[in-house]
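pls ignore typos typing on phone
NAP + seq
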Amino acid sequence: MEKKTVIITGAGSGIGKAIALKFADANYNVVVSDVDEEGGRQVVDQISQQSADAIFIKADVSDRQACKELVKKTVDKYGALHCAVNNAGIGGEMNLTADYSAESYLEVIDINQHGVLYGCQAQIPAIINSGGGAIVNMSSILGSVGTAQSVAYVMAKHAVVGLTQTAAIEYGKQGVRVNAVGPGYIKTPLLDQLDEEQKEQLIAAHPIGRLGEPEEVAALVFWLCSDQASFVNGSYYTVDGGYTAQ
Ligand code: NAP
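k done
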């Protein structure tokens, strides 16, 4: 059977790293991409120690040209692209809507929203040329509900759901399934900006009584990319310990 190739953005840390390790376990060629070169290379080393195949390609997802080059370098190396996970993202400033700075707003939209669009634009033609496959876009529970002090993040994560639905409608017949994932609060460096009291409040907001683990998101992402999910297209799946059920 042909070995499959996957690109994961923001794979040098947190959820992206767990996703990269999950695909490596399943013997994919794994393209670990990130702006954090050190983190990305460590993930590649970890995968290589498990005798799986991985390379690091540095790319800033907010740069449209860099997203195109990421796909081109991947296809040059492995000959095809079957799956992509547009995971890179930042939290941004925490501030009330009326006080939110233009600078942080633009940075969050550029990375969390435009970055997913640029990723899809580069990946879709390559996946079609490779005979079809799947894309998973990283949204959040904040892709379907709001929260205080994160207007740019909430706007970007809602946009990711709309982008996912649109691309799924456009490319389903050409064999490209596009889905979005909505994690609750997951234990990663992204939450480092919160103090202990804020973390306790977040735990209390999840009916399951704890925060999530990156591996619990990776399991859903991997399933959505697999043939087990062959009829799943244009969906937004939460993995949130019941947060959005309330
Ligand atoms: P993380 O641990 O901070 O990892 C994100 C990675 O993306 C970091 O290595 C980061 O590099 C990289 N990155 C940042 N800007 C980038 C850019 N412009 N281009 C390429 N890579 C970039 O965060 P995480 O918690 O795993 O989050 C991953 C995704 O899940 C994000 O989209 C996030 O919004 C989403 N999510 C997270 C949670 C959560 O609770 N953790 C919940 C819902 C959704 P630097 O460290 O150098 O910036």
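The longest helix spans residues 102-129. The chain has seven helices and seven strands. more later
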